[in-house]
Fold each of these.
Amino acid sequence: MIVGVLTLNLLIEDSNSLKDKRQVVKSLLDGIKHKYNVSAAELAELDKWRRAVIGVAVISNDKNTANTVLNHILDGIDSDPRVDVESCEMEFL
């Protein structure tokens, strides 16, 4: 069993309140969960208006499959105009 974990540090430029930020983050997380059937949550920077740290976890019997899913998620978030990916970390357990 392989567990793939993707951690993303995001910048939300157009956010002017926690409400704005939470709308963007909730939309991202719901979309990821629905499209890829993975676990995703906001992990840190909860009180910052323009920053978010989200984590995504996928379980697979094959590292290549987990890697492919996480790369698709990263590409999707990276192409979202509402957020900028400042850094990301991917690891497999």
Amino acid sequence: MSTVRDHLGNARALIGSTRAALPTPALVIDLPAVRRNLAEMAARMEGLPAALRPHAKIHKSQVLGQMQLDAGAIGLTTATIWEASAMIDAGLADILIANQVVGPVKSAELARIAGLGRVTVAIESEHSAREVSAAAVHVGTNIHVIVEIDVGLHRSGVRSVEAAVALGQLIDSLPGLTLDGLLGYEGHCMLEPDRAVRIEKATAANAILVDAADAFVQAGLSTEIIAGGGFGTWDITGANPRVTEIHAGSYIFMDAFHRNLVPGFDVALTVEATIISRDGSLAVVDCGRKSIGIDRIAPEVVGGVASVRFEHGEHFVHEEHTALELASGSDLDVGDHVALMPGYGPTTVNLYDIYFVAEGETIIDVWPILARYGSATCGLGPVR
């Protein structure tokens, strides 16, 4: 079976070559752009009461996670226990899982990594609280916990302040657990293109979280962590004096969707593709839905050399092909490369095993992408 290690070994032979030498589709990081984005976000966070705990689901890379910590992040956020395991096992030792961890295998893994670093997990139910507590007691570790409250997304979280307090009191009484506070993710606000409406929605969502925090204080429960916020609301939620940390992460790469929400960051993640057909102004590249994220918005061609073609009102992005409308007078032809900015970065990253790391046109390194295969890190999936 081909493994990530095989891919890394083969790919390293391309270090020192140019982007044009890459077999496509290939996922490429512009390292100088990443560094500029890290510095830009650090500068924007200065003066805000909230700290930054960026979401590692965006990149799934211990190298990029360490770069975020070096740029001032207080820790990392993950969406899955397996992402958390990958980061902890790589030595990044302060991880918050902004999601429920349910089931005996996942709970056991959570308890394991809690012995290697500080691990905080969101919980919304008595079932999860008791399951995670039992796992921690079984191996003798301690798991930090925050209660997730629904602030309008209606995806997960307890549905009232009263329920949050009751769950917090239960967690506070269970062995193997340390209650640290609350999470209220206003994800329903992230997609709002109208800035004024986004502010209104996020402010209302934050008010629910703060009400829960006030109730925690009155009940004598910890509010060390009051967490929320994504990239679309970084400066709204991050400016709330009661919020201690936000979990924005897409700033590190940018993509077509987030660039329209929060301008001022550089394109640092692209998919290198090859033109495999040309007919007049129509060019087709070897990159489709199986190799680039199209969530919410179509990819964009970098440099203005072409645009994604629309047919019958739909973007022409098939499984293995994307149709482009070439710029007037273009001399691009079969065999030439173009770079596409994903419509959505995280789902694009999840399609690849490795990054090619570039400075300008030169490939300078190859980095693995971690935790793509569910339970792989605990030996139940493909070899990493």
